[in-house]
Amino acid sequence: MIYLKSEILRIKEEALKNLRELESTEALQELKVKILGKKGSLTAMLRQMGSLSPEERPIMGQVVNEVRTRLEQAWEERSAELDAMALQRRLATERIDITLPGTRISRGHIHPLTQVIEEIEDIFLGMGFQIAEGPEIESDYYNFEALNLPKEHPAREMQDSFYITEEILLRTQTSPVQVRTMEKLHPQLPVKIIAPGKVYRNDDDATHSPMFHQVEGLVVDQGIRMSDLKGILLNFSREMFGESREIRLRPSFFPFTEPSAEVDVSCMLCGGSGCRLCKGTGWIEILGSGMVHPKVLEMGGYNPQAVTGFAFGMGVERIAILKYGIEDMRLLFDNDLRFLQQF
Ligand code: DAH
């Protein structure tokens, strides 16, 4: 019995000592099994109690129970200690320093072409225009015929079209919106709209893309004159390219306007003295325009004896290139962030 008791006390002392040294909950659990488990050392002691006399047994039983209770309590304490330490460690490693600057989330922005379209819209809205739209998949009638371009008209070849059927094509210009708008509004006056949108032509090089953007303009009212056209476009050019710009109208031809004019703006790079951009002329072409052809007014439902109008059409990519000095129009469609981030 003496031996048994001292052995039990030895197990206890050793367990308490080990307990203090253990650093993890797992190791703690292992030690618990080794001592108090089914095959544990203390459990083995209990089994040996069979060899004791009936008087000795309860005394030993008490010793074993005391030791077990003491050990279990020690386990609880150490386990709580270890948990607290682990929590401290976690708090230390996961600590957030709220004084550090944040990580910048990079945000996209509006594409330069869209920016230019919105700027054009703003300028014309400021002059009392409204915004109209038309379909990109268009009929031959609106894209050509209603614009005074009958079938077999040679001017149709000015534009290489993407036909879907004989009668349906991707619109080659925003001009069809002129007739669609007049059909919708007549006999209301005035008609004063711009129509921005995508157009399509069978072209692809540094200055042409098969899809590009135009903004069409149309004003119809009683007594509209070419000087109105010039005034509106001068104002537009100055708001777009700077207060000191001048414009000039050069005679040209479009089937849907008569007379027709191409509009040049004084060079935004050299101011008109002549440079590489304007090829020494001092002028840069920005759009086509003219007085709406009587036949077009008529097809739109207006009486050409009673009203007149002007129209114009500009390429948005061209405006963007000139405004920002972009070398190759295709950059506008490449979606290269190094390019786009400059706007
Ligand atoms: N639609 C013409 C083109 O794509 C541009 C144009 C010229 C539009 C004269 C007009 C205009 O409204 O009057 O080349």
From TrEMBL:
Keyword ATP-binding in record: yes
Cofactor: how bound: Binds 2 magnesium ions per tetramer.
Localization terms from the record: Cytoplasm
Amino-acid positions noted as binding Mg(2+) in the UniProt annotation, renumbered to this chain: E258
Pfam assignment, any one: Phe_tRNA-synt_N
Cofactor: Mg(2+)
EC number: 6.1.1.20
Domain Aminoacyl-transfer RNA synthetases class-II family profile, chain residue ranges per copy: 114-322
Gene Ontology annotations for the cellular component aspect, listed alphabetically: cytoplasm
InterPro entries on file: aa-tRNA-synth_II, aa-tRNA-synth_II/BPL/LPL, Phe-tRNA-synth_IIc_asu, Phe-tRNA_ligase_II_N, Phe_tRNA_ligase_alpha1_bac, Phenylalanyl-tRNA_Synthase, tRNA-bd_arm
Keyword Membrane: no
GO biological process, one term: phenylalanyl-tRNA aminoacylation
Annotated catalysed reactions: tRNA(Phe) + L-phenylalanine + ATP = L-phenylalanyl-tRNA(Phe) + AMP + diphosphate + H(+)
GO MF annotations, alphabetized: ATP binding; catalytic activity, acting on a protein; magnesium ion binding; phenylalanine-tRNA ligase activity; transferase activity; tRNA binding
Main location: cytoplasm
Protein keywords: Aminoacyl-tRNA synthetase, ATP-binding, Coiled coil, Cytoplasm, Ligase, Magnesium, Metal-binding, Nucleotide-binding, Protein biosynthesis
Coiled-coil regions listed: 5-32
Subunit and partners: Tetramer of two alpha and two beta subunits.
UniProt family annotation: Belongs to the class-II aminoacyl-tRNA synthetase family. Phe-tRNA synthetase alpha subunit type 1 subfamily.
Name of the protein in its database record: Phenylalanine--tRNA ligase alpha subunit
Designated gene of the protein: pheS
